[in-house]
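Researcher: Sequence of TetR/AcrR family transcriptional regulator follows. Predict its structure.
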Amino acid sequence: MARQNLACDSEPNLRREQLLQAAALLFQKNGYQGATVRQIADATGLTSGSIFYYFKSKEDLLEEIISQAMKSGLQIVHEHLSTATGPLSRFQALALAHLTAIMGPLGSAHDVSFRDWKLLSPDARDRLRTVNQQYREVWMQVLNELKSNQYLLSDPERCRLYMLAALNWGPARKNLTESSQLASAANLFCSIALNLDEEEFHKLCAAEKSGDKPKDVD
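Model: Prediction complete. Tokens:
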């Protein structure tokens, strides 16, 4: 009996996840406004009216998709940064974490987040702003570390905006399925962002990990 109750309790959560995955894929493909509740229902084997048992509205679906993507991305970033020490290693870990998140299982949700954030109501954006601010603070901390060690010469906030745009929409996102490909793309991004060639970036990272005093970068 306990197992039957557990199965009954988990079924709504499973349905919610199926709806979120289907909606994210359809919003990514057709756009939020182009995807219909009927299409989402058909993709999950439900009737259109059944969706509203799990979500109050189509916009609630959009908000939950974006929330899920943001929270998952923040968790991945914290995991990568937890073992990174030194400004260069932390920058590389941050770039790798961002690429890992947007190229991972929730990649379609991240695409929806980038494109359709503006379609959320002001109240929905306010509810998500805390997570958004936490992610901004992580980036600013890492970029300010680079700035204080003279690896970054430009304004950290402006760099953050352009760097995120490059990571989110750049061609490096294509066909990154292996961890080695993600690491290579992250290293290339970091070297370009700091106006270094890849070999020099690797040397500086190695010196940092060995405990050598960081060098000024012209």
